[in-house]
């Protein structure tokens, strides 16, 4: 049988890493700039079939976004036309940079109310800045920041915001918006300040309930009709599946239907005296893009906006990326988060020149667009054309729109953002701590504001993440025999069955001075001390020192060690525990180590060598990252003159070859190989010790 005895693994180097990154720089630069305009990869294949689907989806979204845009502008403390401007720019520019065919960028409820809070706060301090000027400046600043995140490929930061935090601030924001819109719906919004914290608005609403007027009739009936149409269409889709498409479009266009009906009713009520209407109406909306201008951003404005930048970026980015990923999974395509950040950023920067305020992806309109059968992002151009027509042609009609019906539209749309009992039950069953974070976020949002709610949700989630990572625990493994019809082999499981193994199985504990310790998280500075403390504690508990006499006299004993007052008697007491021989660290689940964690290993190695009065072998299993091997070797781990590397069959010709680098025999493929190697070395040492005793 052939026997190949030498194999050397090429370890990574910094120069090699740099050389690899700089390989073919022209192609990398070309690919980067092409990735900024994804439409180049599909526009030349555009065809009539795609166009027919896109035009249906574009028209459907336009019918929804026009009333929603005007309604959401009110949440941003802006006139209705600014919602139309944001809607237009969002759909007309996004397709150049889009990696999602479904996303529709435009005004959304949460971003609108956050914008309203920001512009209101700044306007109170600096009344010389108009609301729309502050909103457009915010769009520029936020757009530039988000675009920079995408350009520098920092989209991964979105992954640090977990679902409970996202659900908390969307639910809290939805409650905030609903509470603020109920007075508009009922007509008593002029009798108190609706810009206070939600709980104060709720209290003052009931205090001023007597001031409700005819608007309540319009608003409540519109809200009931919206929910009735949706319930009917949902039932009809289940009852008549062959007509699903028909009922889908009826359900989708219910907002347009309600707005048109109540526009007509509002006109009938107020047509004789439009200057003193009986019910609240939208009022005059200027035709065209009357607020097109270069955004005003001076030093004062910028310094104020920067303080609100983190919360604005979070809302802008989280909602969009979450929606894009969700619909990418539903429709079987992948999005590029970094490119989506660039798309949001550029859209908002350019939108500010049209008078738009910050816009991002809308869940409801994206769902409608997807369900309508959209084929490419070019459907947004169709939507944009319809919005332009509305801005230039339909503004006289918009004058008569009932504000109460718009409030009903907002409440109806926002209601879907509230997390239901089924999801809350799942949160509780999966992780009670995250369930608690969810409620903390909602309470802060309701009793303070959306901005504080966002910060509290994310901060508590990050603290929980750090706590979990810093308190990660390794597990000591025991041996069991796995038996099947084909094979019999050793398997290693947690001694306390924390890995879900059957408690009836009793793993064999290692009583030979060999410890198998599995680490489940990356071995980094926050958790390294915790891992090593548990390891040393177990070693001291289950082994005895290698020194014959621990302490020569009472004065040498440590103050914190409880021992006999007669040190000379310690060696006379027979200690059945074995001496420490080897430690096997299972690094299978580890992808990174750092300088601090490696220094902990070095310190513990020195401590245990002193404890045993000999050298303890450290075996490492399942190292997948070659940079970890490089780091361990730099600290003196991995090599041994007394241990040989394991061999395996290379092919059908029965050639035996080393599995890993023969220079580093303390690196192993699996736990059993490491344990068997440690046993062989232990037997060698015991034989040497026996021979030494015989000679003496």
TrEMBL record:
Residues 504-678 form the STAS domain. Gene3D superfamilies: STAS domain. The keyword Cell membrane does not apply. The chain crosses the membrane at residues 29-49, 55-75, 82-98, 131-149, 156-179, 216-237, 246-269, 305-323, 372-394, 431-447. The keyword Transmembrane helix applies. It comes from Adineta ricciae. It is found in: Membrane. Its main location: membrane. One of its GO terms (molecular function) is secondary active sulfate transmembrane transporter activity. SUPFAM superfamilies: SpoIIaa-like (SSF52091). Keywords: Membrane, Transmembrane, Transmembrane helix. Pfam families: STAS, Sulfate_transp. This is STAS domain-containing protein. Signal peptide: none annotated. It is a multi-pass membrane protein.
């Amino acid at each position: 049988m052939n026997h190949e005895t030498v194999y050397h693994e090429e370890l990574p180097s910094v120069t090699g890493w740099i050389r690899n990154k700089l390989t073919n720089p022209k192609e990398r630069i070309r690919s980067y700039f092409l990735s900024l305009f994804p439409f180049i990869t599909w526009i030349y294949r555009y065809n009539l079939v795609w166009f027919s689907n896109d035009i249906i989806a574009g028209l459907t979204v336009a019918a929804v976004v026009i009333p929603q845009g005007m309604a959401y502008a009110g949440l941003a403390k802006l006139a209705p036309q600014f919602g139309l401007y944001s809607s237009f720019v969002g759909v007309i520019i996004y397709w150049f940079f889009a990696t999602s065919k479904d996303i529709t960028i435009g005004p959304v409820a949460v971003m609108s109310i956050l914008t309203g809070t920001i512009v209101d706060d700044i306007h109170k301090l600096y009344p010389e800045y108009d609301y729309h000027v502050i909103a457009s400046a915010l769009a520029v600043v936020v757009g530039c920041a988000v675009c920079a995140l995408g350009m520098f490929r920092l989209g991964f930061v979105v992954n640090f915001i977990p679902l409970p935090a996202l659900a908390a601030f969307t639910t809290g924001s939805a409650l905030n918006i609903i509470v603020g819109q109920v007075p508009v719906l009922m007509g008593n919004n002029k009798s108190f300040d609706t810009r206070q914290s939600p709980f104060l608005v709720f209290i003052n609403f009931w205090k001023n309930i007597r001031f409700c007027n005819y608007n309540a009739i319009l608003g409540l009936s519109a809200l009931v009709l919206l929910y009735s149409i949706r319930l009917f269409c949902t039932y009809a889709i289940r009852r008549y599946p062959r007509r699903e498409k028909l009922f889908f479009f009826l359900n989708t266009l219910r907002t347009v239907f309600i707005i048109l009906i109540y526009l007509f009713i509002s006109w009938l009520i107020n047509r004789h005296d439009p200057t003193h209407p009986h019910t609240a109406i939208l009022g005059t909306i200027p035709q065209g893009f009357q607020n097109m201008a270069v955004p005003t951003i001076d030093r004062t404005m910028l310094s104020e906006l920067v303080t609100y930048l983190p919360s604005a970026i979070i809302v802008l980015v989280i909602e969009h990326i979450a929606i894009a990923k969700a619909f990418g999974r539903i429709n079987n395509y992948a999005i590029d988060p970094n490119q989506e950040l660039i798309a949001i950023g550029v859209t908002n920067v350019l939108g500010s020149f049209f008078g738009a305020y910050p816009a991002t992806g809308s869940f409801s309109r994206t769902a409608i667009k997807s369900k309508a059968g959209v084929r490419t992002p070019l459907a947004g151009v169709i939507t944009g054309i319809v919005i332009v027509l509305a801005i230039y042609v339909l503004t006289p009609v918009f004058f008569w729109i009932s504000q109460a019906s718009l409030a009903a539209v907002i409440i109806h749309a926002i209601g879907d953002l509230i997390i239901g009992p089924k999801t809350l039950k799942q949160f509780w069953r999966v992780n009670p701590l995250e369930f608690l974070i969810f409620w903390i976020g909602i309470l802060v949002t309701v009793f303070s504001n959306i901005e504080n709610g966002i910060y509290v949700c994310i901060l508590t989630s990050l603290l929980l993440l750090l706590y979990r990572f810093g308190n990660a625990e390794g597990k000591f493994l025991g041996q069991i025999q796995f038996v099947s019809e084909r094979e019999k082999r050793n398997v290693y499981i947690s001694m306390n069955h924390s890995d879900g193994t059957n408690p009836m199985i009793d793993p064999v504990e290692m009583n030979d001075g060999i410890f198998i310790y599995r680490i489940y998280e990356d071995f980094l500075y926050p958790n390294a001390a915790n891992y090593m403390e548990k390891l040393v504690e177990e070693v001291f508990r289950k082994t005895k020192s290698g020194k014959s006499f621990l302490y020569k006299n009472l004065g040498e004993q440590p103050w914190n060690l409880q021992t006999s007052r007669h040190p000379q008697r310690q060696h006379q007491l027979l200690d059945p525990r074995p001496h420490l021989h080897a430690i096997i660290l299972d690094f299978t689940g580890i992808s990174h180590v750092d300088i601090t964690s490696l220094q902990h290993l070095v310190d513990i190695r020195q401590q245990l060598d002193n404890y045993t009065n000999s050298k303890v072998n450290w075996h490492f299993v399942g190292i997948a990252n070659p940079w970890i091997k490089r780091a361990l070797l730099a600290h003196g781990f991995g090599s041994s003159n007394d241990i040989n590397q394991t061999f395996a069959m290379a092919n059908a010709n029965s050639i035996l070859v080393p599995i890993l680098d023969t220079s580093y025999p303390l690196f192993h493929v699996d736990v059993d190989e490491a344990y068997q190697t440690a046993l062989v070395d232990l037997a060698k040492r015991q034989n040497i010790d026996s021979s030494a005793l015989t000679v003496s």
